[in-house]
Write the structure tokens for this entry.
Amino acid sequence: MQEIEAKPSVNLTPMLRQYLELKQQHQDAILFFRMGDFYEMFFEDAHKASAILEIALTSRNKGDENAVPMCGVPYHAASSYIARLVQAGLKVAICEQMEDPSSAKGIVRREVVRVISPGLVLEAESLDARGNNYLASLSFHQDQIGFSFVDISTGEMGVAYFQTLEALQSELPLRAPKEIIVALQDLEHPFLKNLKNILPHCVLQTYAAELDSSKIINQFSDEFQKCWKALGLEQVSPLAQRAALRLLAYIQEALKSSVNHLHEIHWVKEQGHLVLDATTVRSLELVRNLQEGGTWGTLFQVLDNTKTSMGARKLKSWILYPLNSIAAILQRQQAIAELLENSFLSEPLSGLLAQVIDLERQNSRMATGIANARDVYAVGKSLELLPQIQENISHFHSAFFQGLLADWENLKDLSSNILNLLREDAPLTLREGGLIRDGVHAELDELRAIERDGKGHLAKMEEEEKQRSGISSLKIRYNRVFGYYIEISNTKRDQVPARYIRKQTLVNAERYITPELKSYEEKVLGAEGRIRVLEYELFSQLRTQLATQASKVSKMARKIAEMDALLSLSAVAKENNYCCPDFVSSEELNIIEGRHPVLEKLFPSNRFVPNDVLLNGDTCRLMLITGPNMAGKSTILRQTAVIAMLAHMGSYVPARSCRLSLLDRIFTRIGASDNLSKNQSTFWVEMEETAHILATATSKSLIILDEIGRGTSTYDGLSVAWSVAEYLHDVVKAKALFATHYHELIQLADEKKALQNFHIAVKEWKGEILFLYQLVPGGTSQSYGVKVASLAGIPKKVIGRAEEILKQLSEKNPPQPTPASESLQMPLFTREENPLIKEIENLQIDHLTPLEALQILYAFQKKIRGL
């Protein structure tokens, strides 16, 4: 666009002027400009898009000095190209032809019908079926933040208020929004400067809008308006209200349509669940692994036995936001118990759910007007299953299932309307016909009959006219100039009925038309086009009807998702022999024969060793765990945190038994990492995370610490670790597991009554060590680090020297230099073998002039080279 403005002499066609007018309204987006069977892009958009999409860049008016760069993609394949642009972090504005080019007077009217951005994707092929796709909005006032998020593909929306930037920094990675919008004045906020370190793939957008509450909210459904009013955001948090309003205005402007599937908005309380910060979620590999960020080897992969995408997303949400209410936890536990006791009922229920499509996302596509007939038909087939699902659930009596049944709706009318109207084999396109069943619309049936059997219909009409007029020689014919006509010879002219209208006179005959024939002509000539238009109209009417019922479909989708997630937990518990944890009022966390749910699936059962962890508020609140690397310390730490988290999900846990009190947070500080982009060392990151834990944890928290202080010198690290352990015991008083290589810390057990020493057992045999992976009472004074280094393949010569140094250090003597004959590096001189040593010792350095010293050095160099 700037290129054109710099060349006012460019002679723009009306079409290009129209393009630029629309582009002016969407300057931050790639404009997909519909021209016939293609979406075209021009000017800078063409340069940018052609490079990303790897398509040919050409030009309009090629060869002209004012040639306009352009590129294009076929409209029927546009979705894959749009997905690539959006994945690159760009917006795409879809501009459609709003009238038939064949009947348009002048230039075809075009409008932008939708803007697609990373946070506003609805197409299934561009979404992770088993994960959410969040768009978020932030509003700042110093360190206070209003936060709102929405998954437009499912209809989920929430709003929150944080009093600290740390709270927001913990929440954002859990939601992992693809796009965040802020006001222009907030763009310079220090938090946003660091956003790429928190969310590397998130796109930050500025959006200026008049945040008129009533004007924005009135565009949404009645249910949403009631929910908004009930929240009372203006009184509770104007900052959160501002974030939510900006989000809603952004959605309205982008989708260009009503958003009927957003029917509620929930308030997210910072303490409304067991809190897992981003570090804990990452360290425990709950939903993403540390290698490439996928789900393989994660807790989610182990627990995910869901039959629907909706259930998988719900399960992931349960993992990231465990419960902190005993009543809610017990509801899930009791429901799982009932499923396990009645597998003959749960298995058919799972079979029914396996037939249900992603109702949440298809409902969103219907509500926003982008669903095709095949999508809608699949929704009808899924809704048709609701009565059977209800019947199956009715056999269960626990509170969880009764809650699902409380406001259950089978939506029979909706499913009947869909299945009675639409064809099962409907095409993906909407304007090519083939959408509507036969026998549901009289005019459509007639048009199809005309299209299928035009000659037969004409023959029937001709026979009827012969009988009515008494003219046996009457013929009905057609030509391109006059259309359909009745031809009667002149000899029968006096028998022509009065209702016939003369159309043409020939030498031997007259040609006539009748109102019926004229009507038939209009129908048969326009039958194909009319069929397409009428089918699209009938489909659009159905889609509009479905949009008005979006909240009901969404409610049933949520019920199915929760049911699916619970069935998954039940199936996993049964398959892996999990137990039901008991929640108690006393402060304890007692796990008998606990296992890591992921590792026991990765390794054969005979290789995984269960372990006990017994924590309480009086005699063992803090377990200090020592032992060698590779012995299993980190596994025990992680499995303890995961088991506690699973219990708060309402899930069964991988153990023989488990008793615990309700926790408020789980913290983990495991593994070494740095942050090069922030110029932060491993030790700095370790201390920053530890500081956060010490400042935030309470006596009701569970803390998992691994190797505090290892990123600095031995004495500095030991001092920090010692002090942290004391602070946890004396001040925080949380339940904690503290793994360390600093064996000096085992002395703390002598003076700290609620601290006990444990170690990972190993066995020495024939100079080697065997890992037993067993947690046993008592401390250990050995790390077996040299042995582990040997197992890892360090050269034997290095290992031998390391053992010598270790022996010297353990005897509290400084390491002695390696004898020359055993040195790891070839020596330059040895006293016994090289005469240069004697010469150097006899030199009178104080009496040498600089020139003499240089000459002697030169002589030494010649001798050494000779050697």
